[in-house]
Amino acid sequence: MTVEYTLTIRTGSRFGAGTNAAISVALVGTEGESEQHTLDKRFHNDFEAGAEDVYTVKTRELGELLLLRFTNPGGVAGDWLLDLVRVTAGERSWYFPYHRWILSGASAEVLEGTARLPQQVRNERAASARLEQLMHRQRMYVWRPAEATAGLPGALDISQERPLPKDELYRGLTDGSYEVVIAKTLAAIKLNLPVLTKAWNGLVDIFHFFKSLELPQLSQRWKDDYEFARQAVQGISPVHIQSITALPQGLRLPEGELRGVLSPGHSLEQALAAKRIFLLDFEILEGIPMFRKVDKDGSEERRWAPAARCLLYLDDTRQLRPIAIQLGRDPEKDPVFTPNDAEHDWLAAKIFVRCSEGNTHQMVGHALRTHFVAEPFVMATMRNLPDPHPVYKLLRRHFRYTLAINEGARKGLLAEGGVFDDFIATGGPDKGHLELGKKGYQRWKLSDNKPRPDFERRGVLDPAVLPYYPYRDDALRLWDAIEEYVGGVLHHFYLSNADLAADTELQAWWADLTQRGLPVEKLPCAELKRVEDLVDILATVIFTVSVQHAAVNYLQYEHYGFVPNAPLCMRQAPPQEKGKLKAEDIIEMIPSKSQTLWQIAIGRALSSFGDDEEYLLHEGGWREDYFQEPELAVIRKRFHERLRAQLAAVKERNSQSEVPYTVLQADRIPCGITV
């Protein structure tokens, strides 16, 4: 019996997605497979970027379709980005999501899209197709040798012989690539450089840099104490503030030092007991090598980012403000500065704290705890989970561009001679920034990325203790929505822990992850036996690459762009005596003209969104639709409803805030790490 199969094929919309190659297809089902059919309509330009094309294939009855085998013979503009295929035959229909490239001169088997665990696959041909897909991917996604990532998470091995897979290449758009944005920003700034004074004054001349760029809003209030404290709860690194009831060791603060700083009649001891004192502590910088380089002529360049710490006070207006800063750990050498000290002493102390925070943020809070801890999950997923696996379907959209951006960061920012060597305090010959990343990784566990336990550990979960903490309030609503969504999806497929134990593909994923990606002690369980553990792990991963990355990334231009607010290096050592600093001393401390230029450009590039960005709450729905099951559609609808409620709450709070916190709006949080 001859059957007419109608194929509706959608080509991706990315630049270069279309092809002029003579694409052909064979249909494979439970009752056999068809001959190869060339897909070519007369007087029609087939497979253009973003287009849907409909073709008819007549062949014998094939039973239930298992896969489509596409062959791309190549030619000019040969590579083809296939989004998805829908096939119908009478009342029957099948769905084949792909969202990957079929390269020139290659064939690809696109598996039918019903989500199934491996133990649910009864057909031998379907099972072999899953295995063949994984074998092909394992040749493309190879772990970097262990010695190359010693002290850091596992990563993709990239070489001239084995480049980044085309499926992982960065967006090929005019805007979006951070290298392009850096180049454009540098060009725009350099147009104004001739008007700058020869004697660089970083506190004044920086305004000239913004003649063709938007001026960060905090530039008008950066010296204000309340602004300094506000950045601790809704700035680029709002993960350090902790409630304390006793002063940290080595921070000596006689009562007279705070005369007039605390509320009338309120002692420091009373403030500590009432949980009105908070700490920012960057002790992780202790012992980290700082930039130090001697040129051929014997001149030495040095940079500093001290292991600073700062006390914040919740005053009677229920607002935070800084009350004490120590730029080191030695009570004999490192004085404690307060608002009662000279104007320039206090300003310099605050700038040093922001520098310490910036170096910690860039290498630990940002690069390590989002970018690099995500990479092992991308690798394990691509190597061990075929397209129809529900966990692959759940995770794939959240891994878009992550491997590419990580490799770009390694080469462009972190490598010897990279951009960080030019302007960050921990960069340079001694590779302090890499030591800092390794130190952060040594202390880190995946559970640290879960927001609620983190807030509890720091004593700031209760709004009665810290009333205004927008990062906390927004992150918790998003976490709860993600956890419910992930749990709903996984419990739909894993009805019991026995189902998880029987899932050979996911057990291989776990083995690969723990052997090559993350040591098992970094994870919440030693063995993957409980569905709840899997929910916990995957919810944390999705939260990390979406919400947490957004929180520590997209405010970089606002936070670092106006460089005196948060310089990433200081060119003079922290003061060890009070009352000697002058305005010109601060000018000599903060970054040079060149360092300022780089910091503005990098901050702007890393805060940019791409034209093809896909957000957690995306207008019109997600473009890449992996699940077609009606039950999953209900779960996804519930997820988006919770995200809309979160968005409404954020907008309501921001309408009453002097400085709105918008970076964790659900409709502005990319699904993954794309920059």
From TrEMBL:
Residues 115-675 form the Lipoxygenase domain. Keywords: Lipid metabolism, Metal-binding, Oxidoreductase. The keyword Oxidoreductase applies. The keyword Membrane does not apply. GO terms for biological process: lipid oxidation. It holds the Pfam family PLAT. It comes from the Bacteria. InterPro entries: LipOase, LipOase_C, LipOase_C_sf, PLAT/LH2_dom, PLAT/LH2_dom_sf. GO terms for molecular function: metal ion binding; oxidoreductase activity, acting on single donors with incorporation of molecular oxygen, incorporation of two atoms of oxygen. Coiled coil: none annotated. Residues 3-116 form the PLAT domain. Gene3D superfamilies: 3.10.450.60, Catalase core domain, Lipoxygenase-1, Domain 5. This is Lipoxygenase. It comes from Hyalangium minutum.
